[in-house]
């Protein structure tokens, strides 16, 4: 806070600084706020001012076969990829934090690398490698690569949660006669659940947003929502895109709130332990 | 003398402990193995095979096996021997029949334009019908005089092995001269160095803008009371969680010539005709900065949160000017974390494809665009693989620096 003995220069600096920060936050939010009202426009062009209100673009989004098909595909591919990434990533994170073994940090670097390798390279690589195997133009290939892209997030969040995990709980459980599987299910998993779920949410959005790999691997049958939006933006930008955008913004808000709630919960668990 | 400690069953404790440790290690590896195997098959092997494809050069060897074999013994001076001409005649006749000629002629056409029609035309005249006393070489030159031009034979000789640095050289605007040494291509044929340069340049600017805008916001949020900062943090996180395509679409709506920004500025009388903000470099910069800004703000925020405010207070109480205290005490403490964030943003920028593709002009496309272009549009996988490999090498080199600086085990999300 600014003390009341601050000099004019300090006052000016203080307010300029705040103004800059507020403008940056406005910059961050403005596209989201600008596109939502347009989804309610009766006009067929995405321009302001909005002359009259209408639900017609929502009717188009939820009624048109192309959009509903892509929405359905996204809800097939993303959950499947998330499940795969979460199961494999959680097991690996448990393994990575449970013991030291040679090459561990190198292995970690490799497991994280799908996050930094340019996604076009992942897409082209998968396309050229999968097409002789018959894994292009079908759901399986798409799900596998989307899962690979989501894995780093699960590994990172679950490892972070496990690093605050009290390992004597495992010993306590074992000394009371539980086998390792029961211990994992009843002791470890409930405690690391916030980390697992937030990793899963990251993996889900990764797949749900993914368009580049989909461009290479998906056939017309597997067009996902982002892929449909991509061609929509490229060809003719109709207000149905604004409706799709508004629905997705609502969706990401829900995801964000879930994640924040989970973060708060895991923080409480951590502080309660300390 | 001390007897070694033993467990209840009489086994030395040391041995038992070592076994227990090994078992634990084995279990850990067994837990990581499924994911390792999964990534190997869906990620590592496809990318490695892409790397190999950048030097893969099978077309000429497949279509013209005998010619390839014989021409390797050629001393590269004058024209090859009659045996090579005969081998070519034999190969062309076979390649025409089994359909491998098309790929080879496409490949040789990249070396010298017009080669495709030359090969097709010659293949139509196969099998050879030599007049009495005529040499094979003369007959070929009679079919087309280009068979008397050593350059056309050099092109075959360069491709007579099943791998070649051709695509990698071309990605760097190099070509092999007659003695096989790489040299820069003529200025009017250069393209890729400037694309790599542009990719670096654009990534650099996006990173700089992100730092300039992100640092103050992170500082502000880190020094606000928790309640307020949590609330304002939502304004950073919400765009972060929103689909990139939604944001690109929204920026088009805002930036297009009838868009909100242009009509607003015109209504205020600041401008009298619309500014070109979308479908050029400006639009790409705006959208990329918007997408990547949270990647600067979030890590910077957590670094700044961990710096006790008492240091700066101490400096000020010892007579330092607040600006000087910030610059000398606070800023250096944030530098490692913020620099790591900037490096990560730069790495992510290098691979950008969607945003420039949708919001930029042809002059704003980055390397990824050309990788996709050669894969989908011109079906030149060698070129796609070579450009992709160079991009991958640049990215991985920077990622190695990053993980050395930060340590991947300390990586966290937000």
Automatic annotation (TrEMBL), chain A:
InterPro entries referenced in this protein's UniProt entry, alphabetically: MetI-like, MetI-like_sf
Segment forming the signal sequence: none
What membrane topology does this protein have?
Answer: Multi-pass membrane protein
Q: What GO CC terms are in its UniProt record?
A: plasma membrane
What protein is this chain from?
Answer: Putative spermidine/putrescine transport system permease protein
Keyword annotations of the record: Cell inner membrane, Cell membrane, Membrane, Transmembrane, Transmembrane helix, Transport
> What is an annotated GO biological process for this record, any one?
transmembrane transport
Identify the domain of life: Bacteria
Q: Where in the cell is it found?
A: Cell inner membrane; Cell membrane
Domain ABC transmembrane type-1 per the UniProt entry, residue ranges: 71-260
Mark the transmembrane ranges: 12-36, 75-94, 106-130, 142-166, 187-217, 237-259
UniProt organism field: Pseudogulbenkiania subflava DSM 22618
By sequence similarity, the record places it as follows: Belongs to the binding-protein-dependent transport system permease family.
SUPFAM superfamilies this protein is in? MetI-like
From TrEMBL, chain B:
Keywords (alphabetical) are: Cell membrane, Membrane, Transmembrane, Transmembrane helix, Transport
Q: Name one GO biological process term.
A: transmembrane transport
Asked whether the keyword Repeat is assigned, the reply is no
- Give the superkingdom in one word: Bacteria
Per the database entry, which stretches of residues form a coiled coil?
A: none
**Residue stretches spanning the membrane:** 28-52, 202-222, 234-254, 284-304, 338-359, 379-402
Q: Which InterPro entries match?
A: MetI-like, MetI-like_sf
Localization (cell): Cell membrane
- UniProt cross-references to CDD domains, sorted A to Z: TM_PBP2 (cd06261)
Q: Where is the ABC transmembrane type-1 domain?
A: 196-402
Indicate how the chain sits in the lipid bilayer. Answer: Multi-pass membrane protein
What's any one GO cellular component for it?
A: plasma membrane
Which protein family is named in the record? Belongs to the binding-protein-dependent transport system permease family. CysTW subfamily.
List, alphabetically, the PANTHER family matched.
ABC TRANSPORTER PERMEASE PROTEIN, INNER MEMBRANE ABC TRANSPORTER PERMEASE PROTEIN YDCU-RELATED-RELATED
The molecule here is called: Putative spermidine/putrescine transport system permease protein
| Native source organism of the sequence | Pseudogulbenkiania subflava DSM 22618
What high-level taxonomic lineage is stated for the organism? Bacteria, Pseudomonadati, Pseudomonadota, Betaproteobacteria, Neisseriales
């Amino acid at each position: 806070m600014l003390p009341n003995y601050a000099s004019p220069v300090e006052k000016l600096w203080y307010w300029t600084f705040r103004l800059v920060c507020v403008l940056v936050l406005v910059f961050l939010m403005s596209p989201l706020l600008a596109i939502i009202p347009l989804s309610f426009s009766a006009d067929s062009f995405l321009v302001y001012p909005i002359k009259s209100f209408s639900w017609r673009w929502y009717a188009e989004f939820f009624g048109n076969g192309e959009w509903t098909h892509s929405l359905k595909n996204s809800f097939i591919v993303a959950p499947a990829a998330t499940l795969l990434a979460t199961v494999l990533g959680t097991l690996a994170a448990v393994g990575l934090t449970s013991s030291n073994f040679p090459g561990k940090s190198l292995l970690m670097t490799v497991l994280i690398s799908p996050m930094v390798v340019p996604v076009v390279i992942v897409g082209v690589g998968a396309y050229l490698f999968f097409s002789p195997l018959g894994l292009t133009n079908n759901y399986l290939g798409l799900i596998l690569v989307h899962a690979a892209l989501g894995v780093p997030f699960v590994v990172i969040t679950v490892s972070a949660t496990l690093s605050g995990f009290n390992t004597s709980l495992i010993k306590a459980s074992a000394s009371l006669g539980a086998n390792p599987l029961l211990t994992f299910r009843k002791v470890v998993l409930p405690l690391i659940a916030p980390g697992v779920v937030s990793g899963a949410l990251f993996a889900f959005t990764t797949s749900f947003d993914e368009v580049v790999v989909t461009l290479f691997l998906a056939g017309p049958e597997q067009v996902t929502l982002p892929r449909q939006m991509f061609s929509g933006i490229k060809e003719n930008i109709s207000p149905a895109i604004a409706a799709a955008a508004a629905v997705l913004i609502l969706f990401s808000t829900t995801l964000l709130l879930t994640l924040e709630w989970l973060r708060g919960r895991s923080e409480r668990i951590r502080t309660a332990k300390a | 003398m001390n007897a070694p400690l033993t467990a209840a069953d009489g086994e030395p404790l040391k041995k038992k402990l070592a076994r227990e440790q090994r078992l634990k290690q084995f279990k850990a590896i067994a837990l990581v193995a499924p994911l390792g195997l999964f990534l190997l098959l869906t990620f590592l092997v496809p990318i490695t095979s892409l790397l190999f494809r950048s030097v893969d050069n099978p077309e000429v060897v497949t279509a013209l096996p005998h010619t390839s074999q014989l021409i390797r013994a050629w001393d590269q001076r004058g024209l090859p021997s009659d045996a090579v001409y005969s081998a070519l005649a034999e190969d062309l006749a076979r390649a025409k029949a089994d359909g491998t000629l098309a790929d080879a002629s496409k490949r040789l056409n990249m070396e010298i334009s017009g080669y495709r029609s030359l090969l097709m035309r010659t293949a139509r005249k196969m099998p050879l019908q030599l007049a009495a006393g005529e040499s094979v070489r003369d007959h070929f030159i009679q079919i087309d005089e280009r068979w008397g031009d050593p350059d056309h034979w050099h092109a075959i000789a360069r491709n007579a092995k099943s791998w070649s640095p051709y695509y990698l050289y071309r990605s760097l605007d190099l070509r092999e001269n007659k003695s096989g040494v790489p040299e820069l291509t003529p200025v009017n044929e250069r393209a890729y160095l400037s694309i790599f340069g542009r990719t670096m340049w654009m990534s650099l600017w996006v990173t700089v803008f992100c730092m300039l805008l992100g640092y103050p916001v992170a500082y502000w949020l880190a020094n606000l009371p928790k309640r307020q900062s949590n609330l304002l943090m939502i304004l950073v996180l919400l765009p972060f969680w929103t689909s990139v395509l939604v944001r690109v679409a929204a920026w088009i709506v805002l930036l297009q010539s009838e868009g909100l920004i242009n009509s607003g500025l015109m209504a205020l009388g600041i401008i009298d005709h619309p500014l070109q903000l979308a479908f050029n470099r400006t639009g790409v910069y705006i959208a990329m900065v918007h997408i990547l800004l949270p990647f600067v703000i979030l890590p910077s925020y957590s670094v700044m949160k961990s710096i006790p405010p008492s240091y700066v207070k101490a400096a000020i109480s010892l007579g330092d000017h607040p600006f000087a205290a910030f610059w000398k005490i606070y800023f250096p403490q944030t530098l490692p974390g913020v620099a790591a964030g900037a490096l990560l943003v730069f790495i992510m920028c290098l691979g950008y494809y969607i945003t420039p593709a949708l919001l930029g002009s042809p002059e704003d496309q980055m390397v990824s665009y050309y990788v996709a272009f050669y894969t989908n549009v011109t079906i030149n996988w060698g070129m796609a693989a070579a450009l992709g490999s160079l991009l991958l090498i640049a990215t991985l080199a920077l990622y190695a620096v990053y993980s050395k600086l930060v340590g991947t085990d300390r990586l966290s999300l937000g």
